[in-house]
Design goal:
With 348 residues, this protein is an all-alpha fold. The chain has one domain. Helices cover 67% and strands 0% of the residues. The radius of gyration is 20 Å and the shape is globular. The chain starts with a helix and ends in a 6-residue tail after the last helix.
Length: 348
């Protein structure tokens, strides 16, 4: 997350370190699905960092669990459920679990009146993000949807620059075109893997709708992260998480009830997938909540970028989705660029 390190009192601030901080890095992925602020409530706890040989595999496990959540969503869609139903059930279940955690730990549930409107706007951003991302997953291969969505850190950097919050450094300007080139390869926008030569129009017909949904998810994610930091930075992270997920659930339930657009699974496989995506979503981010304060070096959290790769493998095994070698190379380029962008600036 973009942070004013002078205000946050983070040691080692220098004027040239413009957009990357350890806090931003640690929150980058967890913000993606409303649990982005849970770990902040325990950052001051006396915890011992886990060794690198443990934390890296653990973060890769978290990424695999979250990838399983998205694959389960695609299975639910193929067996009758729709996006509105999946987001409502997932967010409602996660909000209920978070509320139980807050009650068990004695946290007072309530928002100051001055923050209610702002919290609602932030929640609406994440509701849009959730709906757009699941719509992308329903329309194009899961790995490509997640890869396109994961450009949101680049958008966040540009958003902070446009609003005068932070000016990107040289590294950002070098990384962005590389990431976009990799994205073009991963999506195969020229249609080179279709066997018909350059076929932009034909390829866009295949993936255009899903790509637009993923872009919408990336922009709404960046907006939600930006506004969370700007408006709700002083709010208890656990309460902020509950508020955001509750808004997402209420919006989706209202949409489904108001338009009659709920679609339930038609068989046992669909129901199992719907239950699985809710459990996996909650389990993945609960585990991340436990691990992030123990992550040690900020660079260790780069392992969380394993999610699109895990989704690629799982979608191939469970859904029969596969992509060409050129697209795999492009995916690796994008993930590498995001990792480079997220790494903290070296001292000195």
């Amino acid at each position: 997350m973009i942070l004013d390190r002078r205000r946050a009192g983070v040691p080692g601030f220098c004027e040239s370190e413009t957009f990357v901080s350890q806090e931003w890095l640690q929150e980058r992925v967890s913000c993606q699905f409303e649990y982005q602020n849970l770990y902040k409530s325990v950052l001051n706890s006396p915890v011992v960092p886990l060794p690198r040989s443990v934390i890296i595999p653990a973060f890769m496990l978290v990424s695999a669990i979250l990838a399983c959540n998205h694959v389960a969503a695609r299975i639910a869609f193929e067996h009758g459920a729709n996006v509105t139903t999946a987001v409502a059930v997932r967010s409602g279940g996660a909000a209920f679990f978070t509320m139980l955690m807050l009650l068990a730990t004695g946290v007072r549930i309530g928002l100051p009146q001055a923050l209610r409107g702002k919290a609602l706007v932030v929640g609406l951003c994440f509701a849009l993000q959730s709906y757009c991302l699941y719509s992308a997953i329903a329309a194009i291969p899961v790995a490509l949807a997640l890869l396109m969505f994961n450009i949101f850190p680049l958008i966040l950097v540009l958003l902070a620059w446009a609003t005068g919050t932070e000016r990107p450094g040289l590294r950002a300007f070098l990384v962005m075109p590389v990431a976009l080139l990799g994205l073009a390869m991963a999506l195969d926008v020229a249609g080179l893997t279709t066997g018909r030569g350059f076929d932009f129009a034909g390829r866009w017909t295949q993936i255009g709708v899903g790509v637009l949904w993923a872009i919408g998810a990336a922009f709404s994610m960046a907006a939600g992260m930006f506004l969370t930091n700007r408006w709700l930075g002083g709010m208890d992270g656990r309460l902020r998480t509950l508020t955001t997920m509750s808004v997402v659930a209420v919006v989706m339930i209202a949409k489904g009830a108001g338009t009659g657009s709920f679609a339930l699974p038609v068989d046992a496989i669909g129901w199992a997938a719907l239950a699985a995506l809710t459990l996996l979503y909650t389990a993945g981010f609960t585990l991340m909540f436990v691990l992030l304060p123990r992550s040690g070096a900020a660079s260790n959290t780069a392992a969380l970028n394993f999610e699109p790769i895990a989704a690629l493998i799982l979608a191939w095994l469970l859904l029969g989705q596969s992509i060409a070698p050129l697209q795999v190379v492009g995916a690796l380029v994008v993930i590498g660029a995001i990792i480079v962008l997220s790494l903290p600036k070296r001292a000195g």
